[in-house]
Amino acid sequence: MNPSLRCADVSLTLDGARILDGITWEVHGDERWVILGANGAGKTTLLRIAALYQHPSSGSVEVLGETLGRTDVRTLRERIAFSSPALAARLEPSMTAAEVVMTARYAALAPWWHRYTDRDRARARELLREWRCDTLATHPFPTLSAGERQRVLLARTLMNQPGIVLLDEPTAGLDIGGREELVADLAIWARDAARPPLVLVTHHLEEVPPGFTHALVLKGGRVLAHGPLPEVVTSATLSDAFDLRLGVEESGGRYRAFLRP
What we know:
single chain; alpha/beta; six-stranded mixed β-sheet; 9 helices
């Protein structure tokens, strides 16, 4: 079976700086990936390339059977669910929660430029109910709490029944309660075989939901390790990635990292 996402020798240079260097990586339909690495390792940049919001300097990117550079990215983006703090900040601030979800129908940031049907509106409400925020449907998005906004954004990712879901730091800005609720929601998603493949970028090992299957670790824009999560998320690999003496422990499908003496 063809992968949902394939990066082959992907590199990116911006303003003379090598951001990504020779990334080769595949995501298949039943996989749930976490991308780890220190600040500046290239995690968010790689996800933006996978979401077709950034073109690499070299290498090839295939998403859902289409090759970047040989397809209409505007149409293909409608099949890719991408959520990030930067993208959320670009949403039209006057939108309600329901409109935020609904505009994903066309991968749009505002409701003005497309026509939406009653079916679209009903689908948005249905997804808000699924993520326990249907009572917020008519509330302006900027007035919601950080946790509420994240649930609305997760509902948005499913508007088009996407072929792949890419989440960049979805727990950013959440308190402990909000973080744990979101981790639990993503754990349920991870165990649901009917859901599309999922890729999650996080800075914190304890935010990796139970049920995730694979990990990609970046260092200095290069792949340090990738593969089944228990084989990759180890003390040795993370110590190398962060240039620290780190220990890694797992309990009940949750991981944590700590500084070793």
